[in-house]
Write a structure and sequence with these properties.
The chain folds into 2 domains: about 5-205, Rossmann fold (3-Layer(aba) Sandwich); about 220-425, 3-Layer(aba) Sandwich (Rossmann fold). Helices cover about 35% and strands about 20% of the residues. The radius of gyration is 23 Å and the shape is elongated. The chain has about 425 residues and is an alpha/beta fold. Pfam families: Pribosyltran. This is Phosphoribosyltransferase. One of its GO terms (molecular function) is glycosyltransferase activity.
């Protein structure tokens, strides 16, 4: 059996769990990031469960980092696969050095993924530990130890793929096991995936944000609220005490379901910025090329959608800004030149400001242009555009990044730059002390 990617694997794992263990509805789903996060997000959505992470790092054999000789995790968890250590002839000092490196990265990831939030309380609850697969089982064993130490009453380990006999090998690490596939001749987890690209930090954050912060469950503005705008459906997320709202202008090449947009939105939520994600093009309109590249049409739709969205009670009175990518950036700049337009700030990611060249001198809104260093043609368009803008502006180049910012760390840089720009330019005191009822 082959999974298309981790999302597909998560959906198949969710279906198997609902069929074979329906009593797990209401369990806490705990993902092993990075790769387990997109799998666990699908499982949590299907089970209607809370989603959290358990940060674990594999300790790889020197020179063969893909071979686990142990694992370390949060709360000081530690697993040593002595059989692998002995077979590889790894001396204690080499293991200690590798462990120290992994603990340093573990601390960084735990701080990033939690964003200052405490883990979901597990005492007395059933916990479903999810990863994208099991090979040696060192990471999974460490995760199970952590959730047990946090008081879990029952621990179930579920993965899309594992080697035959994996449950027997792991023994009492968990109380229950489920794998969608246990292929004969198992060699590696990645062999069961057509797309097994490394999961990024941004994708982990997007998966967690999609599930919504655990402490916000039931609060006003919980993640996942859908609006209906004139342009079609929109996704609204309002954190507690929002300081402003950012509307994402999706033109060509991306949409409101784009993992890139959701990753940036997740970062904004941690800065208490509400987000509205919607599409400027209706289904099928992307094939009408004149619409794709018409900034007047797209800018008019953006302005209209903004007026509609700001009538929502959760957004009333908040300052707003626009985040535009590609032709969505041109739409934002075009709309910003209208006399009745009042965004507090604009961020353009890999944008096409050249399409709105005639209106750039009329744009006085503080505008941040973010471009990948390897996206040379777009970088030149943005350099020229900045010289034409009529107000405060900045150009930030993300070194080595291409047009889609798919390189490791690139999208995280975009998110940090965007959040900083909006926070800096949104007026203080307008919404920062509001309480939703």
């Amino acid at each position: 059996m082959h999974f298309t990617d981790r999302t597909d694997a998560g959906r198949r794992l969710a279906a198997a769990l609902l069929s074979e263990a329906p009593e797990l509805r209401g369990a806490v789903v705990v993902a092993l990031p990075r790769g387990g996060a997109p799998v666990a997000a699908e499982v949590a959505a299907a089970l209607g469960a809370e989603l959290d992470v358990c940060v674990v790092r594999k300790v790889g054999v020197p020179g063969q980092p893909e071979v686990a000789m142990g694992a370390v995790g949060e709360d000081g968890a530690r697993v040593v696969n002595q059989q692998v250590v002995d077979a590889a002839g790894v001396p204690p000092e080499a293991f200690a050095a590798a462990e120290a490196r992994e603990r340093s990265e573990l601390a960084r990831r735990a701080a990033l993924y939690r964003g200052g939030r405490a883990p979901v309380p597990l005492a007395g609850r059933t916990v479903l530990v999810v990863d994208d697969g099991v090979a040696t089982g060192a990471s999974a064993r460490a995760a199970c130890r952590i959730v047990r130490a946090r008081g879990a009453a029952r621990v179930v380990l579920a993965v899309p793929v594992a080697p035959p006999g994996w449950a027997r090998q792991l023994g009492d690490a968990a109380d229950g096991y489920l794998a969608v596939d246990t292929p004969d001749g198992f060699a590696a987890v990645g062999a069961s995936y057509r797309d097994f690209r490394q999961t990024t930090d941004a994708e982990v954050l997007a998966a967690l944000d999609r599930a919504g912060p655990p402490e916000a469950a039931g609060a006003a503005g919980a993640a996942g609220r859908e609006l209906r705008l004139g342009t079609g459906p929109a996704d609204l997320t309002v954190p507690e005490h929002p300081r402003g709202v950012v509307l994402f202008a999706h033109g060509s090449g991306s949409g409101r379901g784009s993992p890139r947009s959701r990753a940036v939105a997740a970062h904004l939520h941690r800065e208490r910025l509400a987000t509205v994600l919607f599409d400027l093009l209706a289904p099928g309109e992307a094939d009408e090329r004149w619409k794709v590249f018409d900034p007047g049409l797209l800018g008019g739709r953006l302005a209209g959608a903004t007026r509609e969205a700001l009538r929502h009670p959760a957004l009333a009175g908040l300052p707003y800004g626009w985040f535009g990518a590609s032709t969505g950036a041109a739409a934002a700049l075009w709309a910003a030149a209208e006399p009745d337009s009042a965004p507090a700030a604009i961020v353009a990611r890999g944008g096409r400001p050249d399409l709105a060249a005639a209106r750039l001198p009329l744009v006085t809104v503080p505008t941040l242009l973010i471009v990948g260093g390897a996206d040379q043609e777009v970088l030149e368009w943005n350099r020229q555009a900045r010289a034409e803008l009529g107000g405060e502006s900045a150009l930030q180049v993300v070194p080595g990044a291409g047009h889609l910012f798919e390189e490791p760390g690139a999208l995280e840089a975009v998110a940090e730059l965007a959040a900083g720009w909006f926070v800096r330019h949104f007026p203080p005191g307008r919404g920062g002390d509001r309480v939703e009822h």
